[in-house]
Amino acid sequence: MLTVKGLSFDYGRQSILKDIDLSIDAGEIVGLVAPNGTGKSTLLRNITGLLRPKRGQVTLLGNDSQSQRQVFLKHLFFLEDSQRLYEVLTPVELLSYVKAMWGGELSVDQVLKALRMERYHNKRISTFSLGMRQHVLLGAYLISGADLLLFDEPLNGLDPTSIELFTHIFSRLRDQGKSILMSSHQLGNVTTMAERVIFLKDGQVTSYQTAAIDLQAKYDELFGVPEELF
Predict the structure, then answer these.
(1) Which segments of the chain belong to CATH 3.40.50.300?
(2) Would you tell me which CATH number, out of the four given (1.20.120.80, 3.40.50.720, 3.40.50.300, 3.50.50.60), belongs to the domain 1-75+148-154+179-223?
(3) SUPFAM superfamilies, from UniProt (predicted)?
(4) pTM of the predicted model, to two decimals?
(5) What sign results for the dihedral spanned by CA atoms 35, 53, 182, 195?
(6) Which pairs with CB-CB distance under 8 Å and at least 24 residues apart come from 21-27?
(7) Can you tell me the distance from the alpha carbon of 128 to that of 181, in angstroms, rounded to the nearest whole number?
């Protein structure tokens, strides 16, 4: 599905990503975990091509992110966060637009019902709370029908009921063969959904099966505050 080889990215003279190799199979949910400010969003933007890597290659279903860009993007969906939605639109208008551009099989009504957005489907997104915006954001992912879904902090601002709903929908997408890479600065947000977790530290990644090790202990080892600091 997704293959990243030797991906490096510099911001000015600062090296942010260093020769990253990773892959995601069809029907796999992978968590990308690190504290804020360590490069998670930068990695997602490099994978999508919103930022151009210094070197390296990204392919999706065999399609190169640069030389075969149009077909590459057809199989991928990524919105950086719910604050980047078209605020003058309603959920119905936004979902209709995404469906027309990506050609997903689900109808607007099916997505509205699945995400329980019927009561505000014709209101402008500019009036929405963060939790409502997150529902619209996930709706855009669902209706795209894309094979690879990249999420940046998808559970941000959600109440426990909505987190349970999102977890269920992610599981359904995985069962349908969709691949998901979701970033978070909180390990607990991804371990219930992801079968594999990638930690990003000092511009490099390490991958662990969720069931194979104590992920919280590994997170504390990599990112915990040193005891001698206080």
Answers:
(1) 1-75+148-154+179-223
(2) 3.40.50.300
(3) P-loop containing nucleoside triphosphate hydrolases (SSF52540)
(4) 0.90
(5) negative
(6) 21/205, 22/198, 22/205, 22/207, 24/148, 24/179, 24/181, 25/1, 25/179, 26/1, 26/147, 26/177, 26/178, 26/179, 27/174, 27/175, 27/176, 27/177, 27/178, 27/179
(7) 26
